[in-house]
Amino acid sequence: MQLATFVISPIRSNCYILSQDEAVGRDAVVIDPGDSALDAVFSYISVHKLNVTAVWNTHAHFDHVMGVDLVRAKYGVPAYVHPADMPIWDNVAQATQEMFARSVPALHPPNAYFEDGQKLTLGSDEFTIWHTPGHSPGSVCIVGEHFAFTGDTLFAGTIGATHFYLGDPKAMQTSLRKLLQLRDDLELYPGHGQPTTMGHERTSNMFLVQL
Asked: In the chain, pLDDT over 90 holds for what percent of residues?
Protein backbone atom coordinates (compact mmCIF):
# COMPACT_ATOMS: atom_id res chain seq x y z
CA MET A 1 0.00 0.00 0.00
CA GLN A 2 1.02 3.59 -0.62
CA LEU A 3 0.01 6.38 1.76
CA ALA A 4 0.23 10.13 1.20
CA THR A 5 -0.59 12.69 3.90
CA PHE A 6 -1.80 16.25 3.30
CA VAL A 7 -2.12 18.77 6.14
CA ILE A 8 -5.13 20.90 5.27
CA SER A 9 -8.00 22.98 6.74
CA PRO A 10 -7.72 26.04 8.98
CA ILE A 11 -6.79 23.80 11.92
CA ARG A 12 -4.29 21.51 10.18
CA SER A 13 -6.29 18.35 9.69
CA ASN A 14 -4.73 15.30 8.07
CA CYS A 15 -6.18 14.18 4.76
CA TYR A 16 -4.88 10.83 3.53
CA ILE A 17 -4.73 9.19 0.13
CA LEU A 18 -4.39 5.44 0.42
CA SER A 19 -3.63 3.50 -2.75
CA GLN A 20 -2.87 -0.08 -3.70
CA ASP A 21 0.68 -0.02 -5.00
CA GLU A 22 2.84 1.76 -7.55
CA ALA A 23 1.04 0.50 -10.67
CA VAL A 24 -0.46 3.09 -13.03
CA GLY A 25 -4.22 3.37 -12.58
CA ARG A 26 -4.21 1.74 -9.16
CA ASP A 27 -7.27 2.12 -6.97
CA ALA A 28 -7.22 4.66 -4.15
CA VAL A 29 -9.44 6.18 -1.47
CA VAL A 30 -9.44 9.68 -0.02
CA ILE A 31 -9.78 9.80 3.77
CA ASP A 32 -11.06 12.96 5.51
CA PRO A 33 -10.91 15.65 2.80
CA GLY A 34 -11.48 18.45 5.31
CA ASP A 35 -10.96 21.60 3.26
CA SER A 36 -12.44 23.40 0.29
CA ALA A 37 -8.88 23.93 -1.04
CA LEU A 38 -7.71 20.52 -2.27
CA ASP A 39 -5.40 21.42 -5.15
CA ALA A 40 -2.45 19.50 -3.69
CA VAL A 41 -4.63 16.42 -3.17
CA PHE A 42 -6.00 16.55 -6.70
CA SER A 43 -2.54 17.14 -8.15
CA TYR A 44 -1.15 14.07 -6.37
CA ILE A 45 -4.00 11.94 -7.69
CA SER A 46 -3.40 13.21 -11.22
CA VAL A 47 0.38 12.86 -11.18
CA HIS A 48 0.15 9.29 -9.86
CA LYS A 49 -2.76 8.44 -12.17
CA LEU A 50 -4.85 7.06 -9.32
CA ASN A 51 -8.33 5.65 -9.73
CA VAL A 52 -10.25 7.10 -6.79
CA THR A 53 -13.00 4.71 -5.70
CA ALA A 54 -14.41 6.24 -2.49
CA VAL A 55 -14.21 8.86 0.23
CA TRP A 56 -13.92 7.43 3.75
CA ASN A 57 -14.68 9.83 6.60
CA THR A 58 -13.62 9.10 10.18
CA HIS A 59 -16.23 11.57 11.44
CA ALA A 60 -18.26 14.54 10.25
CA HIS A 61 -16.63 17.62 11.78
CA PHE A 62 -16.17 20.31 9.16
CA ASP A 63 -12.37 20.11 9.23
CA HIS A 64 -12.62 16.50 8.04
CA VAL A 65 -15.47 16.63 5.52
CA MET A 66 -15.54 20.16 4.08
CA GLY A 67 -14.19 18.96 0.73
CA VAL A 68 -16.23 15.76 0.39
CA ASP A 69 -18.51 17.11 -2.34
CA LEU A 70 -15.53 18.45 -4.29
CA VAL A 71 -14.02 14.94 -4.38
CA ARG A 72 -17.34 13.36 -5.27
CA ALA A 73 -17.96 15.85 -8.07
CA LYS A 74 -14.48 15.39 -9.53
CA TYR A 75 -14.32 11.59 -9.45
CA GLY A 76 -17.94 10.46 -9.23
CA VAL A 77 -17.33 8.31 -6.17
CA PRO A 78 -19.38 7.51 -3.03
CA ALA A 79 -18.72 9.06 0.38
CA TYR A 80 -19.11 7.14 3.62
CA VAL A 81 -19.70 8.28 7.20
CA HIS A 82 -21.26 6.75 10.30
CA PRO A 83 -24.98 7.62 10.53
CA ALA A 84 -24.70 8.83 14.13
CA ASP A 85 -22.77 11.84 12.83
CA MET A 86 -25.52 13.05 10.50
CA PRO A 87 -26.53 15.99 12.77
CA ILE A 88 -22.92 17.19 12.49
CA TRP A 89 -22.72 16.48 8.74
CA ASP A 90 -25.87 18.54 8.15
CA ASN A 91 -24.37 21.45 10.13
CA VAL A 92 -21.01 21.68 8.33
CA ALA A 93 -21.76 24.89 6.42
CA GLN A 94 -23.00 26.70 9.53
CA ALA A 95 -20.10 25.45 11.68
CA THR A 96 -17.55 26.58 9.11
CA GLN A 97 -19.13 30.01 8.89
CA GLU A 98 -19.26 30.41 12.67
CA MET A 99 -15.72 29.19 13.32
CA PHE A 100 -13.81 30.76 10.44
CA ALA A 101 -16.19 33.12 8.64
CA ARG A 102 -15.79 30.96 5.55
CA SER A 103 -18.79 30.29 3.35
CA VAL A 104 -19.04 26.74 2.02
CA PRO A 105 -22.06 24.97 0.54
CA ALA A 106 -24.04 22.52 2.63
CA LEU A 107 -22.96 18.94 2.02
CA HIS A 108 -25.09 16.58 0.00
CA PRO A 109 -26.13 13.43 1.92
CA PRO A 110 -23.60 10.59 2.18
CA ASN A 111 -23.88 7.81 -0.38
CA ALA A 112 -23.57 5.08 2.24
CA TYR A 113 -23.10 4.60 5.97
CA PHE A 114 -20.44 2.83 7.99
CA GLU A 115 -21.40 0.13 10.49
CA ASP A 116 -19.34 -1.19 13.37
CA GLY A 117 -17.46 -4.27 12.18
CA GLN A 118 -17.98 -3.48 8.50
CA LYS A 119 -15.26 -4.72 6.16
CA LEU A 120 -13.77 -2.44 3.51
CA THR A 121 -11.44 -3.53 0.76
CA LEU A 122 -8.85 -1.73 -1.31
CA GLY A 123 -7.25 -4.14 -3.72
CA SER A 124 -6.23 -7.19 -1.70
CA ASP A 125 -6.13 -5.27 1.60
CA GLU A 126 -8.99 -5.35 4.08
CA PHE A 127 -9.97 -2.78 6.69
CA THR A 128 -12.50 -2.98 9.50
CA ILE A 129 -14.67 -0.16 10.80
CA TRP A 130 -14.42 0.26 14.57
CA HIS A 131 -17.15 2.55 15.89
CA THR A 132 -15.42 4.72 18.52
CA PRO A 133 -17.84 7.41 19.72
CA GLY A 134 -16.80 10.10 22.14
CA HIS A 135 -15.29 12.93 20.12
CA SER A 136 -18.46 12.68 18.08
CA PRO A 137 -21.24 10.07 18.18
CA GLY A 138 -20.27 8.66 14.80
CA SER A 139 -16.49 8.67 15.09
CA VAL A 140 -14.86 5.58 13.62
CA CYS A 141 -11.38 4.13 13.32
CA ILE A 142 -10.49 2.38 10.07
CA VAL A 143 -8.30 -0.54 11.07
CA GLY A 144 -6.13 -2.53 8.69
CA GLU A 145 -3.52 -5.25 9.10
CA HIS A 146 -0.55 -2.90 9.43
CA PHE A 147 -2.04 0.51 10.21
CA ALA A 148 -5.19 2.29 11.31
CA PHE A 149 -6.74 5.70 10.73
CA THR A 150 -7.91 6.91 14.12
CA GLY A 151 -9.54 10.22 13.18
CA ASP A 152 -9.96 12.44 16.23
CA THR A 153 -10.39 9.55 18.66
CA LEU A 154 -6.71 8.93 19.40
CA PHE A 155 -3.72 11.15 18.65
CA ALA A 156 -0.03 10.88 19.41
CA GLY A 157 0.10 11.68 23.12
CA THR A 158 -3.51 12.70 23.59
CA ILE A 159 -7.12 12.09 22.57
CA GLY A 160 -9.88 13.99 20.83
CA ALA A 161 -11.86 16.61 22.72
CA THR A 162 -15.26 15.60 24.07
CA HIS A 163 -16.69 19.05 24.88
CA PHE A 164 -17.82 19.79 21.33
CA TYR A 165 -21.42 19.43 20.15
CA LEU A 166 -22.58 15.82 20.81
CA GLY A 167 -19.26 14.86 22.40
CA ASP A 168 -19.47 12.27 25.17
CA PRO A 169 -16.68 11.71 27.73
CA LYS A 170 -18.15 8.39 28.92
CA ALA A 171 -18.38 7.05 25.39
CA MET A 172 -14.78 8.14 24.79
CA GLN A 173 -13.59 6.08 27.75
CA THR A 174 -15.36 3.02 26.35
CA SER A 175 -13.86 3.64 22.91
CA LEU A 176 -10.35 3.99 24.30
CA ARG A 177 -10.69 0.69 26.14
CA LYS A 178 -11.76 -0.83 22.85
CA LEU A 179 -8.65 0.51 21.12
CA LEU A 180 -6.45 -1.14 23.74
CA GLN A 181 -7.23 -4.38 21.90
CA LEU A 182 -5.08 -3.22 18.98
CA ARG A 183 -1.63 -4.74 18.45
CA ASP A 184 1.39 -2.79 19.68
CA ASP A 185 3.03 -2.75 16.25
CA LEU A 186 0.00 -1.21 14.54
CA GLU A 187 0.82 2.19 13.05
CA LEU A 188 -1.75 4.87 13.86
CA TYR A 189 -2.55 7.76 11.53
CA PRO A 190 -4.64 10.35 13.39
CA GLY A 191 -6.84 13.18 12.22
CA HIS A 192 -4.27 15.76 13.39
CA GLY A 193 -0.57 15.61 14.16
CA GLN A 194 2.05 12.97 13.64
CA PRO A 195 1.62 9.20 13.23
CA THR A 196 2.41 6.93 16.15
CA THR A 197 2.07 3.28 17.15
CA MET A 198 -0.37 1.57 19.45
CA GLY A 199 2.48 0.27 21.58
CA HIS A 200 3.86 3.75 22.14
CA GLU A 201 0.47 5.17 23.03
CA ARG A 202 -0.35 2.27 25.33
CA THR A 203 2.69 3.04 27.50
CA SER A 204 2.99 6.84 27.20
CA ASN A 205 -0.42 8.35 26.50
CA MET A 206 -1.81 9.31 29.90
CA PHE A 207 -5.39 8.86 28.68
CA LEU A 208 -4.66 5.20 27.96
CA VAL A 209 -2.27 4.52 30.84
CA GLN A 210 -4.94 5.46 33.36
CA LEU A 211 -7.54 3.06 31.98
From this structure: 92
